């Protein structure tokens, strides 16, 4: 969230912010074991692999997966996740104008999730200029890519307050 990449200075945010720098890429938060990995994003940014009692969740809020999902390190990190919440900000046409900005393309997100054997992909990091209709089109396109690949991957778009189900238990 350095000023070069983050448009709002901390002093202008209406909150009390405490920053604790990540010193160890393996740690625990309560009963969750967490592993972090650097993301493909300008500046310092990481994604997380969360080992919860009921399943495995991977979360990459800011990253630009390699085209076609060809990123061995990231594939290994997200392999067999129950849920992958992944930066999927652009469609293919938009991505061409934003390559190198550190944000993903829906097509590459689907390819990566399929190659890694992920069970559910949650498209995340929505562009503020995209309305619900555009996000619905992303989901429809992603599901068509999964069907074309004869995959079993489930795809949804992230939304505020969205519950996630792990291990067959109902979300709270």
List the keywords.
4 helices; 172 residues; alpha/beta; seven-stranded mixed sheet; globular; single chain
Distance between the termini: 31 Å
- Tell me the count of domains: 1
Helix content: 10-25%
CATH architecture: 4-Layer Sandwich
| Physical arrangement of strands within the biggest beta sheet | 1-2-3-4-5-6-7
CATH class category name: Alpha Beta
Spans of at least 5 consecutive residues with low confidence: none
Specify Rg, calculated over alpha carbons: 16 Å
* Total helical segments: 4
Average pLDDT taken over every residue: 89
Largest sheet: 7 strands, mixed
Shape: globular
Strand fraction equals 15-25%
The tally of strands reads 7
Secondary-structure element pattern, one letter each: EEEEHEHHEHE
The structural class is: alpha/beta
CATH homology group: Ribonuclease Z/Hydroxyacylglutathione hydrolase-like
Reported by name, the CATH topology is: Metallo-beta-lactamase, Chain A
């Amino acid at each position: 969230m350095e000023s070069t990449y983050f448009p709002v200075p901390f002093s202008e945010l209406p909150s009390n912010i405490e920053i604790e720098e990540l010193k160890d890429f393996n740690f625990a938060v309560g009963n969750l074991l967490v592993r972090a990995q650097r993301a493909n994003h300008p500046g310092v940014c990481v994604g997380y692999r969360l080992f919860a009692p009921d399943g495995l969740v991977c979360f990459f809020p800011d990253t630009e997966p390699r085209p076609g999902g060809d990123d061995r390190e990231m594939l290994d990190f997200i392999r067999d996740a129950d849920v992958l919440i992944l930066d999927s900000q652009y469609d293919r046409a938009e991505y061409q104008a934003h390559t190198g900005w550190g944000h993903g393309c829906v097509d590459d997100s689907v390819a990566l999730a399929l190659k890694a054997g992920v069970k559910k992909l949650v498209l995340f990091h929505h562009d503020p200029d995209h309305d619900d209709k555009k996000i619905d089109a992303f989901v429809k396109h992603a599901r068509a890519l999964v069907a074309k690949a004869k995959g079993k991957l489930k795809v949804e778009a992230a939304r505020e307050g969205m519950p996630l189900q792990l291990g067959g238990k109902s979300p709270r």
